[in-house]
Amino acid sequence: MPVVRQAQFSDLEGIVCVHKSAFEGFFLTLLGPRFLSKFYSIFIEHSSSSLIICEDDDNKVVGFAAYTITPDVFFNFMKKKHGAVLGTLMLPAILMHPLQTLRKVIRALKYRGDQTESMSGYALLSSIGVHPSVKGKGIGSQLINFMNNDLRAREVTAVYLTTDVHDNAATLAFYKKLGFSEHSQFTQSGEREMYRLTNTLDN
How many domains does the chain have? Predict the structure, then answer.
């Protein structure tokens, strides 16, 4: 039976593998496995964030989730302490695909979680990925339930995430089934229409 637990640095290779399979063609994936490994390692490092994984019976990583209880603090820390390294790891992708990446890299430098003032104190589910081979087997639900219990233990009362408005019916249905609802809409990078979804955590 799949088991969810806190990730360790030794799990990063498996997490990157799941990310690449789950998010083929996405911006972060384009930045390469070394960037992804460093990016996710910071969720293990920082005290306000967590990286969790789901393992199958063979101890193989089949899903993961990354979240933080203080998005602005976490992303500020990421840029200040690790920005130079992350920037260096981005360079090959920028040189290979300058038009695709440069504007998004500039936006990433300003990113602090896309949180509104009314969502002060909300945790952010930054990323959740499930390997396509185990889609539909409840892995995503297990990860979110584990995260919710962890957030309750930290006395966090609500969590939010951002996801696409268009061509995203299955993902939206998945989140709504787990208690998320539409909070607001915004445009990312001047072109990508996004929802903020929120979930209030019961004690």
Answer: 1
